[in-house]
Every structure is written in C-alpha cells, then in structure tokens.
User: What shape does this take?
Amino acid sequence: MQTVTVEGYLAADPSILAAQGSGRKRASFRLLETARFRRSDGQMAERTTGFNCVCFNEATAENYIAPYARKGVRVVASGHVENDTWTGRDGVVHYDLRLVVEELRLKTRREGPTEEDPESSVEPAADDLDDEIPF
Assistant: This one.
C-alpha cells in the first residue's frame, strides 16, 4: 500500500460524525495545500489543491481533532488514498478520491505568554526558522 503525506491548512472546522448502527465516531475534513512555482515566462504562480480527508480512529477524532483542529490550522496528514463513490439525490453516481488519515499532526503556533501562564516561553519550531539550509 502506498502512503501519502500532505501538509496544508484546514479549509473549515472538521466534522465529527457518528456511524449509523455502531455509533463509532470519525472525523471528516478538507485540507488545502498550496504549491508555489515559477512559470516558463518567469512569473511566480501558485496552485491550491484540496484533499478530502477522513479519520476513522475514534480516539483521535474525539480527543485530538474535535477539541484542537479549527479552520486555518496547519496540518500534516499521512495515510492512504481510497476511491469514494456515492449516488446523489438526482441519481448521478459521483466519484472522488479521499485520504484515509492514519497519522495526523497539528502544527499550531503559540503567539506568546498568556495572562494565565506569563512564564510560558515561545521557542520556534525547527521548520519556523528562515535560515538557509547548506545542502
């Protein structure tokens, strides 16, 4: 099985849904990834791609995604891709690809010490540094 890793931003707050019958919770969300590139004429451009994601791990959906994931949060999601097929109300069959999330990491940035915790310090994550990488 192939593994796909996508880093981007949540397009909206995730939906926590319960399966009919079993009642098991799952999280559903859309992840937007923007790639910046230079066109053949030298102009900078960007392309945004949306990924429909679903996480079937009930503990992750309830204890991690529901309380902490919000629209605009930067996310790294990895898992495998599945075909999703459904029939609309008009009888038309729809096809889509979705990322079945197996691992998820929220990359939130703290702004600074809060009034409740004035001694908290902010240390930049390794990927927040703008230093040139020498290789």
Q: What stands out?
A: The first strand starts at residue 4 and ends at 10. The chain has one domain: 4-109. The two ends are 31 Å apart (CA to CA).
